[in-house]
Amino acid sequence: MGTYAPLLAGLLALLAGLAIGKAWERYKLRDGRWFDRRKARETPHYMLGLNFLVSNRPDLAIEELTKAATVDSDALEIDLILGNLYREKGQVGRAIQVHQGLLQRPRLKRLEHAYALLCLGLDYKSGGFVDRAVEAFNEVLRLDSENEYALINLEKLHEEQHQWQAAYDIRRRIARVGAAGAEARHNETLAFLENELGLEALKQKDDKAAAARFTQAIELDAATLPAYLHLGDVQVHQGRAADAAATWEHGVAVAPDRAYLAFERLEAVYTRLGTPERFPGLCRQLIAATPQDWRGRVALARHLTSRGKSAEALDLLFEALVHNPHGLAIHQAIWRTLRQLALDPALVDRYVDLAGHAVFYLDPHVCMHCRYRSTELLWHCPHCHEWNSFVEDRLAAAKDADDE
Q1: By residue range, what is the domain housing residue 381?
Q2: Which residues are CB-contacts of 195 (< 8 A; sequence separation ≥ 6)?
Q3: What is the pLDDT of residues 18-71, one digit of tens each?
Q4: In terms of domains, do 244 and 316 share one?
Q5: Residue 73 domain-assigned?
Q6: CATH number, position 217
Q7: Phi, psi of 28, deg, nearest 5
Q8: Considering the entire predicted model, what is its pTM?
């Protein structure tokens, strides 16, 4: 029995140490009394604050979480949430103050330090302090090199500054550390960044480098339409009209809903190649494939009008008006064509009947991520900075209806 006495004593000492450690972790001496740290999470203020946060009532959430923070001033997560709430309410200075205070706490764990820095970086970004935000996110990456949130925010900051190469390099890092199965999303972003780098090369009058960038963009994501458009422009500049036509036709094939972006280019290059009849053939092919395509009808009508076929053009415009009565471009084309037809009263009456319930506005586009609206198709949302997120407003409305 005496042989096991030291072992038993050691085991009892270990258990006692664990018990004391747990007690020290859970309890804290405050004002001469031992306080249970776990109770801070069990206060009604903490639970109410979380409920108000979930129900999107930030003022009440701040009020309750502030009360919960007074119960346990060492509760790191409560102050993190409070700082984020201040930022969301536009009180950036107060958010910065809260998150900077957290960084002054002793014995912060590495993960806690990184997350507090991340929140501080978001504060700086929201306040427009770009250099400080970049510094904060880089410091997060020093502590946690695979922090995807820091990488994404850093990428967006570089995009806002049009620092496309830096944004491209960071997106490559995100692709390496991101979750499996997101390759298509990463490739789409990389393709648009390649396109921007190609445009920079064009500004430097380096056609070879620009063409290589646009080609790489298409290889990364075959649906990157602006890369086809700009690659064709380079080919035309190099005297390769037939190659440009093939490039633009390929772009139209992969993105028929945005074929109209290539219409003027294709019409001009077909004429240059001595085959102008290819353009109306392309338009009719698109209309047949997508009966609701109003832009193809408008483009074909414009082509026919320029060749003296105004009556045939007007029929196409009336068809386009049925599919999109709100499109100002259609109404303008109709009036130009009616003038050429000497404002035939019967045709004017037909137009008035078709347009009777239309509300006129410039063909609007809307971002499917943040609902930002634009009168033109944008490839990069200036509000949420997502790529390739704009659709025509009527298409967005149709998608919303399908979702319901």
Answers
A1: 365-403
A2: 213, 214, 217, 224, 226, 227, 230, 379
A3: 444 544 444 444 444 444 555 555 567 878 877 877 888 888 888 888 888 777
A4: no
A5: no
A6: 1.25.40.10
A7: -140, 140
A8: 0.77
